[in-house]
Amino acid sequence: METRIIDRKLDILRDKLLLLGGTTEKALYLSMRSLTERDSDLARKVIKDDKVINKMEVEIDQMSVEILALQQPAAHDLRFVISVAKITPVLERIADHAANIAEAAIVLNNEPEITQYSELPKMAEVAGEMLQTALDAFTSEDSELSRSVIRRDRDIDDAYNRIFDKLIRLMIDNPPLTTGAAHLLFVAKHLERIGDYVKDICELNVYLIEAAFIKHKKKI
Amino acid sequence: MGNKITVKNLNFFYGKDQALFDISLKIPEREVMAFVGPSGCGKSTFLRVLNRMNDTIPYARIEGEVKIDGKDIYKAKTDVVALRRKVGMVFQKSNPFPKSIFDNVAYGIRINRMHSSKKDLAERVEKALKDAALWEEVKDRLPTSAFGLSGGQQQRLCIARALAVQPEVILMDEPASALDPIATQKIEELVVELKKKYTIVIVTHNMQQAARISDRTAFFMLGKLIEVNPTEKMFTNPDDKLTEDYITGRFG
Ligand SMILES: Nc1ncnc2c1ncn2[C@@H]1O[C@H](COP(=O)(O)OP(=O)(O)O)[C@@H](O)[C@H]1O
Ligand SMILES: [Mg+2]
Predict the structure, then answer these.
(1) Which residues pair with B218 in a beta bridge?
(2) CA of A123 to the centre of ligand 2 (A)
(3) Lowest model confidence (mean pLDDT) among A66-70, A91-95, B216-220
(4) What percentage of chain A reaches a pLDDT higher than 70?
(5) Residue A87: predicted pLDDT
(6) How far apart are CA B100 and CA B4, in angstroms?
(7) Assigned fold of B3-95+161-247
(8) Do A79 and B237 touch (CB under 8 A)?
């Protein structure tokens, strides 16, 4: 079977998406490091690099539209382009949250250090793992793996609720730490949102693989 | 809506060569069904089965059942003339008669003696031309030769000619394959309009055209019906791997 013109285009599109995914994963990882290691220079680098991610988003958008208009994909090809076009802005938003975490890190690095938030890096680790698995599941077109990631989002939500309670108590018991605690709370919220976005990606994976729309469905 | 046409276990032979294999298919009323598939897979043969146009081929033979409105059209007592009036046909190459525009459309009405007066005839011609979205373009030149029309207009004239005898089903064999994009678009709009009143079966090699205008798509290969599904399903998530490969251009 000879390769079709569209195959080359789809390969490039996949590579672009995976590059965006990898860059987003890295942004999340580095933003959390800038927080745990109190490294404001690193935080500023994450914020600056977000522009690169925005540029990648625009490129993928343009290429998706071009393929739709000129190649008129159908069936799996069509679902592939649609999935990529819909996953792209989700990744871009995850990267935005990473940049927001880096901004919070800069504020936190100028505040007295709060040590009682050990669950936050763990939460970030789970979010990062979920993101990585979601992208792997996209590449290998594994809908079971995608569904397992969707189910893990609950762990993130639980962690958020625990951290929320802890930080509120900390603010009440220890007023000088209020600013820091509030910013940690923002970080936790960003991670919680990232979990939701990763879930969106996995739902799009399932659409790609099975042509099934599982978003807003109880039973996945 | 019910099924207009029901085909069961149809086999078709040109002499010793079998062209269609065990085809079962239901065509719902007032919908557009598109037939797609590689050249020579039997689309035209199958289309001609539906109004017994193959009867003219002496070595053709058919097995199975073709029912229209619940009646087997291959029963011995079938009135083939009435059948062809009920199931009209439009071909790839527009084939107007060497007559005036008016006479082309009036032809079927006259031979079937469907009109009660000259005035009635004129009204029927006007209505058919209007339904074929051609009236505005030809109303001032009805007595002139049909060959003075553009390719797209000639094709719509042939559609008007088919509509004039008040068919219920219209079979179209690649009706737009020889037309430019604008004329093609007009035919496509017309097909979508016509399905309000008629059941339409259209053979097309243009996948996007099938996607744009049909409610259901049937995919044929080597004389077999591989898959029939709602067009939206066919083009986003076909059931059969062969369909997927064909509509995504994986084989020619
Ligand atoms: N009049 C005929 N006599 C003998 N064989 C025919 C005749 N018409 C078509 N065929 C054969 O039947 C098969 C189906 O042809 P056809 O129905 O025209 O396919 P399609 O419309 O899908 O291109 C082909 O192998 C073709 O050569
Ligand atoms: Mg043909």
Answers:
(1) B35, B228
(2) 62
(3) A66-70
(4) 99
(5) 98
(6) 34
(7) Rossmann fold (3.40.50)
(8) yes
| Residue nearest atom 24 of ligand 1, based on CA coordinates | B40
Nearest chain A Cα to B249, which residue? Answer: A4
Give the bridge partners for B227, in sequence order.
Answer: B219
Report how many Cβ contacts below 8 Å link chain A to chain B.
33
Cβ contact A73–B248 (<8 Å)? yes
Q: Do B236 and A211 touch (CB under 8 A)?
A: yes
Does the residue A87 lie in any domain?
yes
- Does the beta carbon of B44 sit less than 6 angstroms from any atom of ligand 1? yes
The H-or-E segment that residue B203 falls in is: strand B199-203
**Does residue A81 fall inside a structural domain?**
yes
Per-residue pLDDT band for A10 (boundaries 50, 70, 90) equals: very high
Task: Give me A41's structure tokens.
Answer: 């220079």
Within a domain: A217: no
Rounded to the nearest angstrom, the minimum Cα separation between A93 and chain B is: 28
- Number of folded domains that form chain A: 1
Residue A172 belongs to a domain: yes
Q: Which CATH number goes with the domain that contains A153?
A: 1.20.58.220
CB-side exposure of B242: number of CA atoms within 13 Å? 13
Ligand whose nearest atom lies closest to the CA of B61: 1
Domain that holds residue A182: 2-210
> Domain segments of chain B: what residues?
3-95+161-247
Q: Which residues contact A169 (CB under 8 A, 6 or more apart)?
A: none
The token duo for A15 is 């590579």
Structure tokens at A173: 């018991």
